[in-house]
Design a protein that fits this description.
Rossmann fold, 7 strands, globular, 30% helix, alpha/beta
Length: 172
């Protein structure tokens, strides 16, 4: 398998939480029903914060969004599209993904599924997704985070193209 770190391309830099909200709005505006978004990055890089802003962009109360680190899956169905938020950090691979009903969610995805630490179960997924890697920038920089992107399959590739087109500038 190709090392994913070799496949990521720079997408944008985020100055602050307003930039995270703008990225989330653009993701929501360009997502199509049935989309799969994988989020990668070290602890504290803002993966769950990005999901909160995605929820808000879908019309879901962002205060209802919590990290599913221990529950593994949270569903939010009261927005313009259903949002399923998974955190697979503690899973060991495809068998564990099946154990939490992961395939069932994928088979019946009518909205957007976001999987934090998606690289953990990458081998279990159909090859059609968008993946963002968030990284913190050292203190003293003018930006807080850099976002890198990669995609697989026709849906993921088209989503990334729409996202790049809509973002335009590289600094959010």
């Amino acid at each position: 398998m190709i090392a994913l770190s070799d496949r990521f391309e720079f997408l944008c830099e985020i100055e602050n939480e307003a930039g995270t909200a703008k990225l989330a709005r653009t993701l929501a505006e360009t997502a199509e029903p049935g989309a799969l978004l994988l989020l990668s990055g070290e602890l504290g890089t803002g993966k769950t914060t990005l999901v909160k802003h995605l929820a808000a962009a879908f019309g879901i109360d962002p205060n209802a969004v919590r990290s599913p680190t221990f529950t593994l899956v949270h569903e939010y169905r009261d927005g313009r599209l259903p949002l399923v938020h998974m955190d697979v950090y503690r899973l060991e691979g495809p068998d564990d993904f099946e154990g939490i009903g992961g395939y069932e969610y994928l088979d019946h995805n009518e909205g957007l599924i976001v999987i934090e630490w998606g690289e953990t179960v990458l081998d279990a997924l159909d090859p059609d997704w968008l993946q963002l890697r968030l990284e913190l920038v050292p203190e003293g920089s003018e930006v807080a985070r850099r976002v890198w992107a990669t995609s697989e399959g026709p849906g993921g590739t088209a989503w990334l193209a729409r996202l790049r087109s809509r973002l335009g500038e590289n600094l959010l």
